[in-house]
Design goal:
There is one protein chain. The chain is an alpha+beta fold. The protein contains two helices and eight strands, in the order βββαβββββα. The two termini are about 25 Å apart.
């Protein structure tokens, strides 16, 4: 099972406006706060759908951004997903501006990802989850059938 969606209505106000979201990878679920500073709920939904389509189309890696303030922000949060055959390996990643070559391009955040690693530079195991390419196809089909990733009233 693969799913990523925004839940409920936006909360907060001004620069603190956000939407709760949830990522599902098999039995694992992670809730997150998606800031609505530069991106609206529909921007996240469109980005996630495009990332899934790229992987399904054969791209070796795509990123599902869950925290996008503006391209030159101090940090971003996303979930890089590497396709290897009919399997997709997903990890959570904190993108720090100081480690990027310039600002983060939300149209192509994959340029900042690199190859998939299972062990950090410090020797620690990196958490990752595995889903099937079919799970991505099911996600796209659900979205196409009208089950939007936008919050419901």
């Amino acid at each position: 099972m693969f799913d990523i969606e925004l839940l409920g209505r936006p909360e907060g106000q001004g620069d603190g406006l956000f939407n709760w979201g949830r990522l599902t990878l098999g039995r694992f679920q992670d809730e997150f706060q998606a800031p609505l500073y530069e991106w609206a709920p529909g921007d996240y939904a469109a980005h996630w759908l495009e990332s899934a389509r790229r992987l399904l189309g054969g791209a070796p890696v795509a990123v599902f951004l869950t925290h996008m303030v503006r391209p030159d922000a101090a940090y971003h949060v996303g979930w890089p997903a590497w396709r290897e055959g009919d399997r997709v390996y997903v990890q959570e990643r904190l993108f720090l501006r100081e480690h990027l070559n310039g600002t983060l391009d939300p149209e192509c955040p994959e340029v900042h990802v690199g190859r998939r690693q299972e062990v950090s530079d410090e020797g620690e195991r990196i958490s990752q989850w595995e889903v099937g390419v079919r799970d991505l196809a099911d996600f796209i089909e659900r979205r196409a059938a009208g089950h939007s990733a936008l919050p419901t009233p």
